[in-house]
Amino acid sequence: MTSLLDIDDLAIAYKTGDHEQRVVHGVSFKVEPGEVVALVGESGSGKTTTAQAVLGLLAANGRVERGAIRLNGTDVSRWSQKRFDAIRGSVVSLIPQDPGSSLNPVRTIGAQLAEVMQIHKRGDRKTIEARVLDLLTRVGLTPAEMRAKQYPHELSGGMKQRVLIAIAVALNPALIVADEPTSALDVTVQRRILDLIDELRRENGTAVLLVTHDLGVAADRADRLVVLQGGRIQEQGPVKEVLASPRSAYTRRLLSDAPSLAKARPERPTPSAVDFAIEVQGLTQDFPVAGGAPFRALDGVSFKVRRGTTHAIVGESGSGKTTAVRSVVGFLKPTAGRIVIDGVDLTTLKGEALRRFRKHIQLVYQNPYGSLDPKQTVQKIIEEPLLNFEPIAAADRARKVRDMMRRVGLPESFLDRHPRALSGGQRQRVAIARALVLDPRVLVLDEAVSALDVTVQAQILALLDELQKALGLTYLFVSHDLAVVQQISDTVSVMHKGRQVDGGPIDKVFVRPDSDYTRELIDAIPGRTMPVLASPAISLQG
Amino acid sequence: MTRYLLGRVGQALVVLAITFTAAFLLLQVLPGDAIMIKFMSPEMALTPAQIAEIRASYGADLPLWQRYLTTVGNFLTGNFGYSIQAGVPVSQQLATNLPPTLLLASLAFVAAVVLTIVLAALSNLTGMGWLRAGLQSLPSLFISVPVFWLGIMLIQVFSFQLGLVSVISPGPVEKLILPVATLAIPISAPLAQILMRNIDEVLTQPFVAVARSKGASRSWVLWKHVARNAVLPTLTIAGVLFGELLAGAVVTEAVYGLSGLGGLTYQAVGNHDTAVLQAIVVISAVAFVTINLIVDLLYPVLDPRLGRKVAAT
């Protein structure tokens, strides 16, 4: 019997300038009919490139150098785009990564769903119309007649992904390539979307090539696992076997770095301080709505954070966590409530006094690519906050910058570099150094590790832990990822639609949550089926 | 939607009022006026008293604010005043000179749009790298060519050397070929540049990859998915470029010796014929504002995301 997909010694290179950079080095694996194979790896592992090659959708500068991609026994790796057009959508289809930008904003979803049938000429207008409504209903978008006429911007992220799933299954293909299908979605939505893909593929006997960075997702959903690193396969096999007894050191490291609720919580020291660094009381924030009642983004949120500890704010998109952060750092004037930082009521400060106070509370943003000025050197970036306050002699400034570099584990040779020459993890270290150079008492970390690969994430979390101990910092840690929060926080506020639905010490909230929402959130975290490995010491090193 | 419409129309009216006033004031502060130029020449041998009488008959002796109000009133009732140099109503001069310019400008605009689309489509659909590179560098070449030079070169090549278009007593269509080309090429350059850049940008969007994963061919993707998204920003530029079209028409008409608004403007400036100039400025402003109003109103039609925002305001 021939395999549905047989990738044999595949090598792919991208041409940049006048030299070719090989990113996939002789990868071989198979997907049998009806099987789910997960392609797991970090950024730069070649997993997406491999998946794109299966669809014939490599970037214009990409080229299959060697090897074969056999679909039902036919090698498609050197096919022209024209030949690929005949099988894309009908034999192989795609569920893309980011539903937000994967639908054409100026066409209705009905038209975009109908399109795949029009391209492959499956029936007349009437048949296609009826099939569109069937499909929309099947993926849970009802009433289908109304949904078909809507534009993408009228749907939520999860609903858009349902449309894209409907497009992918419309012609009942033999193989679906799902490229990080849920990475951009909230965890509760993620679970429902993955359930839907599971159901549909079972109904139709479709095989799925699931590309993901999330071992938890792979563990829960796949039959077999292919672990990629740097364009090479580290190991592959049935998912349970690979996870229970990984043979390669890389898989072991991935497993130990991946945050998981099943992991034992690291021992956290009981705080020595008795006073509170942050006290938030009845924080309420309204935003005006043109011609309507104001929108209440935060509704009576209260929490206290003991000095030297970490408080997490957890919630999905639209929960109000970002608004809470913006209020705490003094960017927003709250409609009601008090924010006391180190005994000073922030809500009474304004103008110059507020600006001076910002020194004590610093922010590290989510996106390490967007938060650093690409034109500045690392030296200038870290030094800049110092120039906004009391003048410091240039020599002292330089010393301070070098101190910070050492603290965040960056070599001094990086001082003259520009952000583009740094990796994501290195950039986030620069951002942390910039925040710490003013000796703040409170550090607000807004999804500060969300954009990083798990191994880098583990390193940054270890660095934050070390800095907290050494400098007695208080952290306000905003995240959508409960597994990460559980690893590094002492207390937590769970936010839902602007309200705090749960709050208190981590152990209490995670084990005995007050609200159904928190329970749902915890249950939705992927990776329950993932075995727990003894954590090696590697994750504690900066 | 009605509120949005009324707001936009209101804004357009404010722009017109300001343009009218600014043009009026600027034309008044120019030293010398048309009456002096026409009647004070020695051959006329008119006495100062006679000249003062003529001034009074044109209302030129009234204080500025009074003249302003009269002119506003006249314009509102469709009376554009008299051309002092020609001695005929301005409306009569416009009736003969506006249509040929309007024809030239519209044809040039259509030609520019067609040229833009052809350039963009060809450069995106061709499989040949050198052709694509060549087509993509054309706009930068076009943009740096001055209108008067282009006009002269086109006449040299097509009329004198190749003899394809006759210069002496050409037919009505033949007469327009070179002027339209002269005017269209520099207008198409920025349009094509922006359209090509937008197309490249839209092509990198994930929804294009999704369309390809449905089995759509390159041209299907270009027409059904990329075109409408890429045209949106180009539209704004098209509206703004219309102003350039009017300015270009003046030069083009001069180069080709065509009668039209260009010739009229040229003469009126030389003679300080303020009534004519005021009318030309107002007409140009009306055209400019109308085109941009249409562009603004077209936006929500082409982009459903704006439609909802518009409805909400």
TrEMBL record, chain A:
<dbReference type="GO" id="GO:0005886">
    <property type="term" value="C:plasma membrane"/>
</dbReference>
<keyword id="KW-0547">Nucleotide-binding</keyword>
<dbReference type="Pfam" id="PF08352">
    <property type="entry name" value="oligo_HPY"/>
</dbReference>
<dbReference type="GO" id="GO:0055085">
    <property type="term" value="P:transmembrane transport"/>
</dbReference>
<dbReference type="GO" id="GO:0016887">
    <property type="term" value="F:ATP hydrolysis activity"/>
</dbReference>
<dbReference type="InterPro" id="IPR050319">
    <property type="entry name" value="ABC_transp_ATP-bind"/>
</dbReference>
<feature type="domain" description="ABC transporter">
    <location>
        <begin position="5"/>
        <end position="255"/>
    </location>
</feature>
<dbReference type="InterPro" id="IPR013563">
    <property type="entry name" value="Oligopep_ABC_C"/>
</dbReference>
<dbReference type="GO" id="GO:0015833">
    <property type="term" value="P:peptide transport"/>
</dbReference>
<dbReference type="InterPro" id="IPR003593">
    <property type="entry name" value="AAA+_ATPase"/>
</dbReference>
<dbReference type="GO" id="GO:0005524">
    <property type="term" value="F:ATP binding"/>
</dbReference>
<feature type="domain" description="ABC transporter">
    <location>
        <begin position="278"/>
        <end position="522"/>
    </location>
</feature>
<dbReference type="InterPro" id="IPR027417">
    <property type="entry name" value="P-loop_NTPase"/>
</dbReference>
<dbReference type="InterPro" id="IPR003439">
    <property type="entry name" value="ABC_transporter-like_ATP-bd"/>
</dbReference>
<dbReference type="InterPro" id="IPR017871">
    <property type="entry name" value="ABC_transporter-like_CS"/>
</dbReference>
<comment type="similarity">
    <text>Belongs to the ABC transporter superfamily.</text>
</comment>
<protein>
    <submittedName>
        <fullName>ABC transporter ATP-binding protein</fullName>
    </submittedName>
</protein>
<keyword id="KW-0813">Transport</keyword>
<keyword id="KW-0067">ATP-binding</keyword>
<dbReference type="Pfam" id="PF00005">
    <property type="entry name" value="ABC_tran"/>
</dbReference>
Automatic annotation (TrEMBL), chain B:
<dbReference type="Pfam" id="PF00528">
    <property type="entry name" value="BPD_transp_1"/>
</dbReference>
<feature type="transmembrane region" description="Helical">
    <location>
        <begin position="102"/>
        <end position="122"/>
    </location>
</feature>
<keyword id="KW-1133">Transmembrane helix</keyword>
<keyword id="KW-1003">Cell membrane</keyword>
<dbReference type="GO" id="GO:0005886">
    <property type="term" value="C:plasma membrane"/>
</dbReference>
<dbReference type="InterPro" id="IPR000515">
    <property type="entry name" value="MetI-like"/>
</dbReference>
<keyword id="KW-0812">Transmembrane</keyword>
<dbReference type="InterPro" id="IPR045621">
    <property type="entry name" value="BPD_transp_1_N"/>
</dbReference>
<dbReference type="Pfam" id="PF19300">
    <property type="entry name" value="BPD_transp_1_N"/>
</dbReference>
<dbReference type="GO" id="GO:0055085">
    <property type="term" value="P:transmembrane transport"/>
</dbReference>
<comment type="similarity">
    <text>Belongs to the binding-protein-dependent transport system permease family.</text>
</comment>
<feature type="transmembrane region" description="Helical">
    <location>
        <begin position="276"/>
        <end position="299"/>
    </location>
</feature>
<protein>
    <submittedName>
        <fullName>ABC transporter permease</fullName>
    </submittedName>
</protein>
<feature type="domain" description="ABC transmembrane type-1">
    <location>
        <begin position="98"/>
        <end position="299"/>
    </location>
</feature>
<feature type="transmembrane region" description="Helical">
    <location>
        <begin position="176"/>
        <end position="196"/>
    </location>
</feature>
<feature type="transmembrane region" description="Helical">
    <location>
        <begin position="230"/>
        <end position="256"/>
    </location>
</feature>
<feature type="transmembrane region" description="Helical">
    <location>
        <begin position="142"/>
        <end position="164"/>
    </location>
</feature>
<keyword id="KW-0472">Membrane</keyword>
<keyword id="KW-0813">Transport</keyword>
<feature type="transmembrane region" description="Helical">
    <location>
        <begin position="12"/>
        <end position="30"/>
    </location>
</feature>
<dbReference type="InterPro" id="IPR035906">
    <property type="entry name" value="MetI-like_sf"/>
</dbReference>
